[in-house]
Amino acid sequence: MHSVNFEKIFLTVAILAPVGILAQTLEASLPPGFMICGDQIMDPAKGSKVRFWWGYHEMDPSRLFFVVAAKAKGYVGIGFNNREQMKGADMVLGWITSNGTVTFEDRFGSTDFASPILDKEQNVKLEVAKENATHTLFAWTRPAKTSDTSGQDWQINNEMIEVLWAYTDEDPIGAPAMHTERGHMKLNLVEKHPTLGKP
Ligand code: HEM
């Protein structure tokens, strides 16, 4: 396990992404203490444009952190579910407009076919939001077990879950709409966590 160096992380993203963008990288840094447990290219068969990291804060391991970086300038979303589709998924959805306005929201998949709705209780804390000419990056924290008892949050345990991802090339005009690309991958987000990863 190691502390986060986002500049390095983002360079790796850029290198893995399609050619022509090596000169355009994004620098982002978090406060110290964030430990990485894993990272994953989420779309190896779809251009390797989405990379996701997960970990925890060493002073308070119950506080999990996540980072998503995508070669996309619209919205970027990450969801947790026990199925590959959107219904039932605990999601975050964020975008940064060209004038720098940041939106980052805790959402919930109420159907398989429409925009995830805003959670009644917002349980994510945005830590970093960055966009450059080619990429968008969000880092956020949340407790492994949130106080949301409405069923809109996924309580993170030592198990494989479906991690959903989606992005658009353009910022939403009005309400967020259909993705440019989307997908899912099975991951265990706390397997290497010091306490939650124990059997
Ligand atoms: C914001 C508005 C959104 C709309 C209107 C929307 C709409 C849809 C629709 C109509 C489908 C079915 C057609 C298809 O398979 O492409 C779909 C599938 C899917 N969406 Fe969304 N979506 C939205 C956001 C998101 C977000 C934020 C995520 C991830 C965090 C996501 C993940 C997925 C995935 C993984 C599938 C494919 C499920 C499967 O494999 O069958 N969507 N979405």
TrEMBL record:
One GO MF term attached to the UniProt entry: copper ion binding
Keyword Transferase attached: no
Domain spans labelled DOMON: 48-168
Gene Ontology biological process terms in this record: dopamine catabolic process; norepinephrine biosynthetic process; octopamine biosynthetic process
A GO CC term attached to the entry: secretory granule membrane
UniProtKB keywords: Signal
Protein name: DOMON domain-containing protein
Pfam families hit by this protein: DOMON
Keyword Signal appears in the UniProt entry: yes
CDD domains from the UniProt entry: DOMON_DOH
Leader sequence residues: 1-23
InterPro entries documented for this protein: DBH-like, DOH_DOMON, DOMON_domain
